[in-house]
């Protein structure tokens, strides 16, 4: 089965700096990879989807890269703000057809003013 | 758009009783919905895939007779936790992908506490 690794240690960052999160996976290479944000006691919120043939994708202050050779995705939050404090999850689909997702353990980000 | 609601947002029940949780897609139709469980400080664990008009598909290790899923319409899936025990206490979250998309839209979650 797919194994997804995210840094379990919280990332403390100063407001205005860039936060960089890592998602590493093993076994098969997925057709796409997704990133979600989850606040405490809430359901996750979809942020970005990047396909295997895309190297980079941006949405406002967010940037995602996808390196299928390294089996790694990087998630960047530029000009971070205290409101960006949350847990960020990466998720991958199964090797077969279907749209169910397997989630990584998530990385908690804390942006300090 | 793509809003998913859950009801109730929290519930406390006694051991041995059953609890039903509803998941609704408010502004889109969902032939597939997913049910997850999340324990404190852990990630989401997929329990089952709910398919409109057919039986749910359960993940390995999830008891289908304990966690009953019904997907009776294109906008509603229900999860019933039968004969609940304290170890079933958890945060239950549903999600649904709009047709033709891969991203999932999650409900706000239901906090279940079994005493």
Through-space gap between termini of chain B: 37 Å
Roughly what is the average pLDDT of chain A, rounded to an integer?
A: 93
How many DSSP E strands of chain B?
11
DSSP helix count of chain B?
A: 0
Largest sheet of chain A: 6 strands, mixed
Q: Share of helix among residues of chain A?
A: under 10%
Distance between the termini of chain A: 40 Å
Strand content of chain A: over 45%
Structural category of chain A is mainly beta
Overview of the structural elements:
The complex is a heterodimer of chains A (113) and B (115). Chain A has 113 residues and is mainly β. Chain A contains no helices and eleven strands. In chain A, strands 2, 4, 5, 9, 10 and 11 form a six-stranded mixed β-sheet that branches. Chain A has a five-stranded antiparallel β-sheet with strand order 1-3-8-7-6, with no helix packed on it. In chain A, a hairpin with a 4-residue loop joins strand 7 and strand 8. Chain A is globular, with a radius of gyration of 14 Å. Chain A starts with a strand and ends with a strand. The model of chain A has no long low-confidence stretch (mean pLDDT 93). Chain B is globular and about 40 Å long. Chain B has 115 residues and is mainly beta. Chain A binds chain B through residues 32, 34, 36, 41-46, 49, 89, 93, 99-106, and chain B through 4, 6, 32, 34, 42-44, 46, 49, 91, 93, 95, 97, 102-109, 111.
Features:
heterodimer, A: 113 residues, mainly beta, 6-stranded mixed β-sheet, 5-stranded antiparallel β-sheet, 11 strands, globular, B: 115 residues, 7-stranded mixed β-sheet, 4-stranded antiparallel β-sheet, 0% helix, 50% strand
Please outline what is shown here.
By secondary structure, chain A is mostly beta strands. Chain A has strands at 4-6, 11-14, 19-25, 32-38, 45-51, 56-59, 62-67, 72-77, 86-92, 102-103, 107-112. With 115 residues, chain B is mainly beta.
